[in-house]
Amino acid sequence: MNEGWIKLHRQILDDPLYFAEPFTRMQAFIDLILIANIKQTTFFKRGIKITVERGQTARSEDELAERWKWSRGKVRRFLMEQQNDGKIVQQKSHVCSCISVVNYDKYQIDDTTDSTTNDTTDSTTDSTTKNKKEKNNILSTSTTRTHVRDGTTEDGDPEDDIDKDIEQLKASVIWIEQICMKHKILPDQLPEIFDAFAAECRCNGLKRHQDLKDAQRHFNNWLRIYKQNSNGNNSKSSHQRTSPADNIEAAQRAEIERTARIIAASKK
Question: Are strands 56-57 and 41-45 parallel, antiparallel or unpaired?
Protein backbone atom coordinates (compact mmCIF):
# COMPACT_ATOMS: atom_id res chain seq x y z
CA MET A 1 0.00 0.00 0.00
CA ASN A 2 1.31 3.45 -0.93
CA GLU A 3 2.10 5.77 1.96
CA GLY A 4 3.48 9.25 2.45
CA TRP A 5 2.83 12.57 0.75
CA ILE A 6 3.98 14.57 -2.25
CA LYS A 7 3.88 18.36 -2.55
CA LEU A 8 1.68 19.50 -5.43
CA HIS A 9 1.72 23.29 -5.81
CA ARG A 10 -1.32 25.07 -7.26
CA GLN A 11 0.97 26.57 -9.90
CA ILE A 12 0.47 23.28 -11.73
CA LEU A 13 -2.80 24.86 -12.91
CA ASP A 14 -0.70 27.27 -15.00
CA ASP A 15 1.04 24.44 -16.85
CA PRO A 16 -0.27 24.10 -20.45
CA LEU A 17 -0.32 20.33 -20.05
CA TYR A 18 -2.88 20.55 -17.25
CA PHE A 19 -5.74 21.53 -19.59
CA ALA A 20 -4.26 20.01 -22.75
CA GLU A 21 -6.90 17.25 -23.03
CA PRO A 22 -10.14 16.05 -21.39
CA PHE A 23 -9.71 15.21 -17.75
CA THR A 24 -9.64 11.69 -16.37
CA ARG A 25 -11.94 10.95 -13.44
CA MET A 26 -9.06 11.02 -10.97
CA GLN A 27 -7.76 14.29 -12.41
CA ALA A 28 -11.24 15.77 -11.99
CA PHE A 29 -11.31 14.78 -8.31
CA ILE A 30 -7.81 16.20 -7.73
CA ASP A 31 -8.95 19.36 -9.51
CA LEU A 32 -11.81 19.74 -7.00
CA ILE A 33 -9.23 19.69 -4.19
CA LEU A 34 -7.07 22.25 -6.00
CA ILE A 35 -9.89 24.73 -6.66
CA ALA A 36 -11.52 24.35 -3.22
CA ASN A 37 -11.25 27.36 -0.92
CA ILE A 38 -8.23 27.51 1.39
CA LYS A 39 -10.20 29.80 3.72
CA GLN A 40 -13.73 31.16 4.03
CA THR A 41 -14.77 33.68 1.39
CA THR A 42 -17.99 35.50 0.54
CA PHE A 43 -19.50 36.93 -2.63
CA PHE A 44 -22.85 38.27 -3.80
CA LYS A 45 -25.03 36.66 -6.44
CA ARG A 46 -28.42 38.13 -7.39
CA GLY A 47 -28.09 40.39 -4.38
CA ILE A 48 -27.72 37.44 -1.99
CA LYS A 49 -24.58 37.03 0.12
CA ILE A 50 -23.01 33.61 -0.40
CA THR A 51 -20.48 32.19 2.06
CA VAL A 52 -18.08 29.53 0.76
CA GLU A 53 -16.26 27.71 3.55
CA ARG A 54 -12.76 26.19 3.59
CA GLY A 55 -12.77 23.02 1.51
CA GLN A 56 -15.71 24.17 -0.65
CA THR A 57 -16.06 25.45 -4.21
CA ALA A 58 -19.04 27.21 -5.77
CA ARG A 59 -18.37 26.07 -9.36
CA SER A 60 -21.46 25.14 -11.37
CA GLU A 61 -21.84 22.00 -13.51
CA ASP A 62 -21.51 24.13 -16.64
CA GLU A 63 -18.25 25.67 -15.39
CA LEU A 64 -16.82 22.26 -14.51
CA ALA A 65 -17.92 20.82 -17.86
CA GLU A 66 -16.04 23.55 -19.71
CA ARG A 67 -13.03 23.21 -17.40
CA TRP A 68 -12.81 19.42 -17.68
CA LYS A 69 -13.86 19.25 -21.37
CA TRP A 70 -16.79 17.00 -20.44
CA SER A 71 -20.49 17.09 -21.16
CA ARG A 72 -22.74 18.47 -18.44
CA GLY A 73 -24.35 15.05 -18.06
CA LYS A 74 -20.97 13.42 -17.44
CA VAL A 75 -20.15 16.06 -14.80
CA ARG A 76 -23.48 15.47 -13.04
CA ARG A 77 -22.98 11.68 -13.02
CA PHE A 78 -19.41 12.03 -11.77
CA LEU A 79 -20.37 14.37 -8.91
CA MET A 80 -23.21 12.08 -7.86
CA GLU A 81 -20.83 9.11 -7.94
CA GLN A 82 -18.30 10.95 -5.75
CA GLN A 83 -21.03 11.95 -3.33
CA ASN A 84 -22.29 8.37 -3.08
CA ASP A 85 -18.70 7.28 -2.34
CA GLY A 86 -18.52 9.82 0.49
CA LYS A 87 -15.81 11.94 -1.15
CA ILE A 88 -17.84 15.13 -1.66
CA VAL A 89 -21.12 16.68 -0.50
CA GLN A 90 -23.24 18.78 -2.86
CA GLN A 91 -25.45 21.66 -1.69
CA LYS A 92 -27.75 23.18 -4.28
CA SER A 93 -30.13 26.13 -4.19
CA HIS A 94 -31.87 28.37 -6.69
CA VAL A 95 -28.96 30.81 -6.35
CA CYS A 96 -25.85 28.64 -6.68
CA SER A 97 -24.36 25.20 -6.16
CA CYS A 98 -21.65 24.40 -3.64
CA ILE A 99 -19.37 21.33 -3.51
CA SER A 100 -17.67 20.37 -0.24
CA VAL A 101 -14.60 18.10 -0.35
CA VAL A 102 -14.91 15.60 2.48
CA ASN A 103 -11.77 15.34 4.66
CA TYR A 104 -10.32 18.38 2.88
CA ASP A 105 -7.87 19.00 5.72
CA LYS A 106 -6.39 15.53 5.18
CA TYR A 107 -5.59 16.44 1.56
CA GLN A 108 -4.53 20.04 2.25
CA ILE A 109 -2.00 20.72 5.01
CA ASP A 110 -1.51 24.39 5.94
CA ASP A 111 1.31 26.03 3.99
CA THR A 112 2.84 27.41 7.21
CA THR A 113 3.46 23.88 8.41
CA ASP A 114 5.20 22.85 5.19
CA SER A 115 7.26 26.05 4.88
CA THR A 116 8.93 25.57 8.24
CA THR A 117 10.16 22.08 7.33
CA ASN A 118 13.89 21.89 6.77
CA ASP A 119 14.60 20.97 3.16
CA THR A 120 17.47 18.74 4.25
CA THR A 121 15.25 16.62 6.53
CA ASP A 122 14.95 13.04 5.44
CA SER A 123 11.64 12.62 3.58
CA THR A 124 10.92 9.20 5.09
CA THR A 125 11.27 10.52 8.64
CA ASP A 126 9.08 13.55 7.84
CA SER A 127 6.36 11.34 6.36
CA THR A 128 6.42 8.99 9.34
CA THR A 129 6.12 11.89 11.79
CA LYS A 130 3.11 13.33 9.93
CA ASN A 131 1.37 9.95 9.85
CA LYS A 132 1.87 9.52 13.60
CA LYS A 133 0.45 13.00 14.25
CA GLU A 134 -2.60 12.23 12.11
CA LYS A 135 -3.25 8.99 13.99
CA ASN A 136 -2.95 10.80 17.33
CA ASN A 137 -5.35 13.50 16.14
CA ILE A 138 -7.89 10.89 15.08
CA LEU A 139 -7.62 9.15 18.47
CA SER A 140 -7.93 12.50 20.26
CA THR A 141 -11.02 13.42 18.23
CA SER A 142 -12.64 10.04 18.92
CA THR A 143 -12.01 10.41 22.66
CA THR A 144 -13.40 13.93 22.77
CA ARG A 145 -16.57 12.98 20.91
CA THR A 146 -17.46 10.39 23.55
CA HIS A 147 -17.98 13.32 25.91
CA VAL A 148 -19.80 15.62 23.52
CA ARG A 149 -23.29 14.34 24.17
CA ASP A 150 -23.18 15.00 27.92
CA GLY A 151 -21.59 18.42 27.28
CA THR A 152 -18.23 17.74 28.95
CA THR A 153 -14.60 17.79 27.88
CA GLU A 154 -12.06 15.10 28.60
CA ASP A 155 -11.43 16.79 31.96
CA GLY A 156 -15.13 16.61 32.83
CA ASP A 157 -15.66 20.38 32.68
CA PRO A 158 -19.00 21.45 31.14
CA GLU A 159 -18.82 23.56 28.01
CA ASP A 160 -21.85 25.31 26.52
CA ASP A 161 -21.21 25.85 22.81
CA ILE A 162 -24.84 26.02 21.70
CA ASP A 163 -24.46 29.71 20.81
CA LYS A 164 -21.49 28.83 18.60
CA ASP A 165 -23.54 26.09 16.95
CA ILE A 166 -26.32 28.60 16.26
CA GLU A 167 -23.85 31.06 14.71
CA GLN A 168 -22.53 28.32 12.43
CA LEU A 169 -26.08 27.49 11.37
CA LYS A 170 -26.79 31.15 10.62
CA ALA A 171 -23.63 31.38 8.51
CA SER A 172 -24.68 28.44 6.30
CA VAL A 173 -26.47 30.59 3.72
CA ILE A 174 -27.32 27.86 1.21
CA TRP A 175 -28.60 25.56 3.96
CA ILE A 176 -30.71 28.43 5.40
CA GLU A 177 -32.36 28.91 2.01
CA GLN A 178 -33.14 25.21 1.78
CA ILE A 179 -34.61 25.18 5.30
CA CYS A 180 -36.83 28.20 4.54
CA MET A 181 -38.11 26.62 1.34
CA LYS A 182 -38.66 23.18 2.87
CA HIS A 183 -40.52 24.40 5.97
CA LYS A 184 -42.14 27.42 4.27
CA ILE A 185 -40.83 30.01 6.69
CA LEU A 186 -39.57 33.56 6.16
CA PRO A 187 -35.99 34.62 6.97
CA ASP A 188 -37.24 37.19 9.50
CA GLN A 189 -38.83 34.36 11.50
CA LEU A 190 -35.50 32.61 12.00
CA PRO A 191 -34.13 34.66 14.96
CA GLU A 192 -37.09 33.65 17.15
CA ILE A 193 -36.91 30.05 15.93
CA PHE A 194 -33.17 29.83 16.61
CA ASP A 195 -33.74 31.22 20.13
CA ALA A 196 -36.37 28.56 20.76
CA PHE A 197 -34.03 25.85 19.42
CA ALA A 198 -31.19 27.01 21.70
CA ALA A 199 -33.54 27.05 24.70
CA GLU A 200 -34.73 23.54 23.82
CA CYS A 201 -31.14 22.23 23.60
CA ARG A 202 -30.29 23.65 27.02
CA CYS A 203 -33.52 22.32 28.56
CA ASN A 204 -32.46 18.86 27.44
CA GLY A 205 -28.91 19.28 28.79
CA LEU A 206 -27.33 19.37 25.33
CA LYS A 207 -24.25 21.61 25.46
CA ARG A 208 -23.00 21.25 21.87
CA HIS A 209 -23.28 19.12 18.73
CA GLN A 210 -20.69 16.82 17.23
CA ASP A 211 -20.26 19.01 14.15
CA LEU A 212 -22.15 21.35 11.82
CA LYS A 213 -23.94 18.53 10.01
CA ASP A 214 -25.13 17.08 13.33
CA ALA A 215 -26.49 20.52 14.32
CA GLN A 216 -28.22 20.93 10.95
CA ARG A 217 -29.77 17.47 11.19
CA HIS A 218 -30.99 18.13 14.76
CA PHE A 219 -32.40 21.56 13.87
CA ASN A 220 -34.22 20.21 10.81
CA ASN A 221 -35.91 17.40 12.81
CA TRP A 222 -36.77 19.76 15.68
CA LEU A 223 -38.17 22.42 13.32
CA ARG A 224 -40.49 19.89 11.69
CA ILE A 225 -42.11 19.16 15.07
CA TYR A 226 -42.03 22.85 16.01
CA LYS A 227 -43.93 23.75 12.83
CA GLN A 228 -46.44 20.95 13.27
CA ASN A 229 -47.24 22.15 16.77
CA SER A 230 -47.39 25.77 15.60
CA ASN A 231 -49.80 24.90 12.80
CA GLY A 232 -51.98 23.01 15.27
CA ASN A 233 -52.16 25.99 17.58
CA ASN A 234 -52.82 28.38 14.70
CA SER A 235 -55.80 26.31 13.55
CA LYS A 236 -57.35 26.76 17.00
CA SER A 237 -56.74 30.52 17.20
CA SER A 238 -55.65 32.52 14.17
CA HIS A 239 -55.21 35.66 16.32
CA GLN A 240 -52.90 34.16 18.94
CA ARG A 241 -49.23 33.94 18.02
CA THR A 242 -47.45 30.70 18.97
CA SER A 243 -44.85 31.06 21.70
CA PRO A 244 -41.63 29.00 21.52
CA ALA A 245 -42.54 27.59 24.94
CA ASP A 246 -45.65 25.95 23.45
CA ASN A 247 -43.44 23.71 21.34
CA ILE A 248 -41.01 22.53 24.03
CA GLU A 249 -42.94 19.43 25.16
CA ALA A 250 -43.20 17.98 21.65
CA ALA A 251 -39.59 18.84 20.85
CA GLN A 252 -38.44 17.30 24.15
CA ARG A 253 -40.02 14.00 23.18
CA ALA A 254 -38.21 14.13 19.84
CA GLU A 255 -34.90 14.91 21.58
CA ILE A 256 -35.38 11.97 24.00
CA GLU A 257 -36.00 9.64 21.05
CA ARG A 258 -32.97 11.10 19.23
CA THR A 259 -30.72 10.61 22.26
CA ALA A 260 -31.97 7.02 22.65
CA ARG A 261 -31.07 6.27 19.03
CA ILE A 262 -27.58 7.71 19.50
CA ILE A 263 -27.01 5.61 22.64
CA ALA A 264 -28.29 2.48 20.89
CA ALA A 265 -26.04 3.09 17.91
CA SER A 266 -22.97 3.60 20.13
CA LYS A 267 -23.53 0.23 21.83
CA LYS A 268 -23.45 -1.67 18.52
Answer: unpaired
